Task: inverse folding
């Protein structure tokens, strides 16, 4: 049994902290002045209850109702129980979310705090069958309005950093954190759950819905960002960007921080809408290792199955990646790998005449040496993928001087309109795969010498 398997086997879900304690005291937030009328701002009242619970290690609960809040900060030893009939809804005022140091889309910078924050804490649980609602549409509109003015100026890349939108849940610099229990997370202004610089985190049984009231931009489901020992399971995700995503920093800043994402398990999850069933990147600078994803279903609202993405300024690596037992129903591209992701977003350059730039623009536009910027993906095993209704079985490419090395693909069962292309592959082994295409095509191996692709018996699925 490897180290991550031993870690998972020893995990106990909800409550991680209370298992060895006497029964924790319950603190009813209403006793501290919280009012569930959907109008009264309850940030101070709930924070008082959280701080009281932290003194002895306890559980904060609420009476059924709708509680308008700004940023809350959970403390070590506290369980926040958002019970059935309880909704925590985020304020529409930006000043309800204090500016704090964090990392956003791969860059360390100041950004509004999340609605629910676990920062520099340990033994924290968020659970319950209630709802945490980011009231996203106002934040989504602020992004689209800004982007409409930025894009004609050549500033598409800056839109995601300048449109300040609160995340729903942030776990940063924290240890032994649990999230789940059937809780509904909806309408996040930006990423729904970000796990940043943390370890020993368990997300079990979350429902994420970011399509009510419109399609929110950048409403990722769960982002694991330069963290380790993270287990995500039994999630039900409906979002408009990456669903289950691994990140590790962007360009010069990510290479400076140089913190990998490692020892990760993603399993037993359904993705209804989102960019992919499983995503690595595009922030790859710190690298990835010992990653496993399995028993994941993606439906027709998901364009890619396995999505690896980076850019020639990102750098970093990915190795010891294991992805298997995926069911893809109507997913357009089951295996999608690109190392030149979304150039207008990935490559930041200052237009002529732009002055008085914020410090993070300078960071974003700092040049990365060519060899340092090339990402390197290797030692990847993908197997037991069953895909129906695909448009192209493969869309794979990298760079001639930064090839995709030592990939094993076996027991793929794919029905697609066409086979697609695999480019810049070195030492790939493909065995026991059954690819049935409407046009009768086989995968085209471009920029990949025949000696670098072994054993390719593509047959038809029964």
Result:
């Amino acid at each position: 049994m490897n180290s991550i398997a031993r870690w998972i086997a020893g995990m106990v879900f909800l409550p991680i902290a209370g298992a060895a304690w006497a029964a924790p005291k319950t603190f009813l937030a209403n006793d501290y002045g919280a009012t569930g009328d959907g109008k009264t701002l309850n940030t101070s009242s709930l924070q008082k209850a959280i701080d009281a619970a932290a003194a002895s290690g306890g559980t904060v609960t609420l009476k059924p109702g709708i509680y308008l809040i700004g940023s809350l900060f959970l403390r070590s030893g506290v369980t926040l129980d958002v019970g059935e009939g309880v909704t925590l809804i985020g304020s529409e005022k930006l000043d309800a979310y204090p500016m704090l140091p964090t990392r956003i889309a791969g860059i360390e910078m100041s950004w509004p705090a999340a609605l629910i924050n676990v920062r520099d804490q340990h033994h924290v649980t968020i659970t319950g069958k209630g709802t945490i609602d980011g009231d996203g549409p106002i934040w989504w509109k602020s992004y689209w309005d800004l982007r409409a003015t930025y894009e004609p100026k050549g500033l598409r890349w800056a839109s995601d950093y300048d449109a300040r939108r609160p995340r729903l849940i942030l776990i940063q610099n924290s240890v032994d954190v649990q999230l789940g229990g059937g809780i509904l997370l909806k309408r996040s202004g930006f990423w729904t759950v970000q796990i940043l610089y943390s370890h020993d985190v368990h997300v079990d049984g979350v429902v994420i819905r970011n399509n009510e009231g419109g399609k929110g931009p950048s409403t990722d489901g769960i982002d694991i960002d330069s963290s380790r020992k993270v287990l995500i399971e039994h999630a039900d995700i409906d979002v408009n960007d990456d669903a289950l995503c691994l990140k590790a920093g962007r360009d010069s800043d990510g290479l400076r921080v140089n913190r990998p994402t490692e020892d990760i398990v993603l399993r037993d999850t359904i993705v209804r809408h989102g960019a992919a069933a499983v995503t690595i990147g595009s922030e790859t600078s710190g690298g990835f290792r010992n990653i496993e994803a399995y028993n994941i279903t993606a439906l027709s609202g998901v364009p890619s199955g396995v999505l690896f993405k980076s850019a020639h300024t990102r750098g970093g690596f990915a190795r010891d990646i294991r992805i298997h037992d995926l069911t893809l129903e109507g997913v357009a591209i089951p295996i999608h790998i690109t190392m030149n992701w979304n150039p207008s977003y990935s490559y930041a350059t200052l237009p002529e005449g732009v002055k008085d730039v914020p410090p993070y623009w300078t960071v974003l536009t700092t040049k990365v040496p060519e060899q340092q910027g090339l990402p390197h993906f290797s030692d990847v095993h993908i197997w037991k993928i069953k895909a129906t209704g695909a448009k192209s079985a493969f869309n794979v490419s990298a760079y001639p001087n930064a090839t995709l090395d030592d990939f094993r693909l076996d027991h793929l069962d794919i029905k697609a309109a066409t086979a697609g292309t695999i480019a810049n592959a070195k030492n790939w082994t493909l065995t026991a795969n059954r690819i049935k295409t409407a046009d009768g095509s086989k995968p085209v191996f471009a920029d990949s010498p025949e000696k670098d692709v072994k054993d390719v018996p593509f047959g038809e699925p029964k």
